[in-house]
């Protein structure tokens, strides 16, 4: 007979979980494994709320397993390390992002692309190597294989660093892989939300000229004055869009809602790249003719491997890049989810787990 989440493992754990597709989260007792010889155990201090968390608690993608403890933008302080751990010691600031395991033997894993391993293991709601379900960072502590743990540099504030483990690496990896990281290039960023605002910060730090493309004219001041974007395009303003046709080397599209691609493709120069990092629930229409006429590319990118994630957070520390966050207590979680559904946040909710999660 299967054991209950509370008795599955030796270490008692506590967090907040969704029990069904209503998505309502409430206190939850469960358990985690003992610290294995290659494991790092850390006290969770902060955890970001990603749009993915909202989709999974409500089973929008049809693959959620309950009870579900979300959270894959997790930072904290090491409390215990296994006997064969080499990279970390007690007291280190660390983080865990979207994945906690992979096969470690395929071509992707051999090339530091664990995020594209066919057998990668998500930080929550997935089956771990031992057959038990993974639980995320809306909880008091984490246990993870050291290979999937990131060192957080001391100069980065933990609350602002947490979202970099998903939103940060997603945009950084796309800019790097598709060569949109050369000083003097002109890159568009579509959508100024959790991903978009850090995309602007990374692109600017790489020396790229950045245009924010948004449906909301009221975001112009924020984009230019606070995030230091070079220009701003209202995507619904046909005159503005027409004036920018053929001016961009690449575009990072962070929008997770259904939207037209044709106006974005038109903004690209010949050989330009439209890179999708948002995940709309329904297929988008892709007009092929404009791709042929400019040898243009529509591509995708999803988080990054562990080596690149460490590189990203070190780069962020060097350039003082953090996410703009609204820190909340854990008991505000359901209200935060409602606000997130209405995009009423600038730009990432982060739960103050360390100070507000109290076991009942």
Secondary structure layout plus pairing:
Blueprint: E1 11-18, E2 25-32, E3 39-48, H1 51-57, E4 74-81, E5 93-96, E6 99-101, H2 107-110, E7 121-122, E8 141-145, E9 150-151, H3 158-161, H4 167-177, E10 186-190, H5 194-205, E11 209-214, H6 220-226, E12 231-234, H7 238-243, E13 248-253, H8 262-267, E14 268-276, H9 289-294, E15 297-300, H10 306-318, E16 325-328, H11 333-341, E17 348-352, H12 353-356
Parallel strand pairs: 10-11, 10-13, 11-12, 13-14, 14-15, 16-17
Antiparallel strand pairs: 1-2, 3-4, 3-8, 3-17, 4-5, 5-9, 6-7
Helix pairs in contact: 4-5, 4-10
Mean pLDDT: 96
Which secondary-structure class do the elements indicate? alpha/beta
Report the order of strands and helices: EEEHEEEHEEEHHEHEHEHEHEHEHEHEH
What is the rounded distance between the termini?
A: 27 Å
Shape: globular
Number of helical segments with 4 or more residues: 12
The share of residues in helices is 10-25%
Care to count the β-strands? 17
Unreliable spans are: none
- DSSP strand content: 25-35%
Major beta sheet, specifics?
7 strands, mixed
Taking all Cα atoms into account, the compactness measure Rg is 20 Å
